[in-house]
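ERR on first pass: missing label on line 2. Operator R.T. fixed the label and resubmitted. Corrected input:
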Amino acid sequence: MSLEQEIEKRRTFGIISHPDAGKTTLTEKLLLFGGAIQKAGAVKSSKIKDHARSDWMEIEKQRGISVATSVMGFNYKDVKINLLDTPGHQDFAEDTYRTLTAVDSVILVIDCVKGVEIQTEKLMEVCRMRNTPVICFINKLDREGRDPFELLDEVEEKLNIKVRPLSWPISMGKTFKGVYNLYEKSLTLFTPSKTKVEEDRINVSDIQDPQLDSYVGETNARQLRADVELIEGVYPDFDPTEYLAGKVAPVFFGSAVNNFGVKELLDTFIRIAPPPIPRETTLRIVEPEENKFSGFIFKIHANMDPKHRNRIAFLRICSGKFARGSNYYHVRQEKSLRFSNATAFMAQDRETVDEAWPGDIVGIFDTGNLKIGDTLTEGEKILYTGIPSFSPEIFKEVVNMDAMKTKQLEKGLLQLMEEGVAQLFTYELGKKKVVGVVGALQFEVIQFRLKNEYNATAQFVPQNIYKACWISSHDPKKLAEFIDSKQRHIARDKDDKLVFMAESRAWLQMVQDNFPDIQFHFTSEFKD
Ligand code: G4P
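pass 2 clean. output:
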């Protein structure tokens, strides 16, 4: 098969949702359709439930499970689908943000009872930054949920994206009858079943057809006709190019646990979701069809065995063909590396991969050469962009509790930061080290892993910091003046970039007003 054909048949995506909306259930059903698993219940939930806080075994288990289910590749109707798992637990949100840099589109799951929840808003912000195409799946229609029109309005308002329903529910909860596919003009009737794989579609090309009444009842048929009229009047026709530009999200309704509406979603997904897309680098846009291989690392996972420090780096292939055993150029380190042990992810198995194509993810065993954001090429000195760090939410100073183990602590911290577990900020004055995380659970993970894997003892002291803002200015003199006047609050991130550690929202606002020539950025990647 030619490179173009390999690219055309690939779809690389992630599922995002607020915890408990049904991401794991939907993943499992998609794998069922792909034949990657044989029965429901085979996908272990990769989430840490709230009650499992401080349960180390649970954290260790999570690390193990999430390698296995980090990337699930499967084939469906001649399409090679790569599904990238995103941790549902909000304390691991940073990991999810980065995974979103490696996908070409996302499916967003919303619980019809709860509507748009906070975690979804944050994840969608990341999608909006990159104009990632989004398909919405409104789940749990077998429950008494909110009015579908109201849900759609909420999606538009809170997630800042236009929507276009492609299917429409007929009633809900106990009286849920099924969905009407507005695109194909077919009706799928609902029968609760956790094991059913096929759905029966009935062709109802004319919604005025009296037959409809006999399928769903007179009242429901009347309601559906009114709803469809309203939809056609309010929402413009679905335009796939707008979807691909990340401007409009098609919406489906269903019930993942009952395997209802999932096949419909998958069939539409493979038809409209984008194959691997061109990607930006520091120098130019790279097209997937280019013959020369290139890709970037978006995730690093420590090995489970603390005695061996090798790690698995996840490489997203962006162009050309990746061939095992070849030498590739590591742009940051300016050296050539040989990759003889790349692994492909097929469903839950890992197998050695001889070649991989744009859109594919391969796992590389690494002993410390690679870090998140690294670019690999056949020699060209380009760096993939769009893998920024976001300002953490909670900050604590690292205090070494065992002076004999200073080196171990430093090494441990460095490696954990390279894995992207948290972000380290080193103050210019006094070299104080402050770790920033998105969720408090991360501190416990870090402390535990420092002890367990590096034999270092650290304590964390809370800091009064609201946000870490990366700073820049068109005027180097003004920047120097600013640094001078705010010395106590200036730090450097892992890449030595300048960061202003703001103590409160009000104070940050005041400083921004007082220093109009300084730009404050909430992500590490910005255009001046
Ligand atoms: P998550 O990965 O997004 O966190 O959600 P997950 O799939 O684990 O689903 C959360 C809960 O919602 C699960 O129940 C799951 O069975 C249920 N669920 C998923 N889809 C549907 C649906 O269409 N209808 C209804 N009524 N429930 C649904 P649980 O009790 O937390 O777990 P379990 O014991 O059922 O596995």
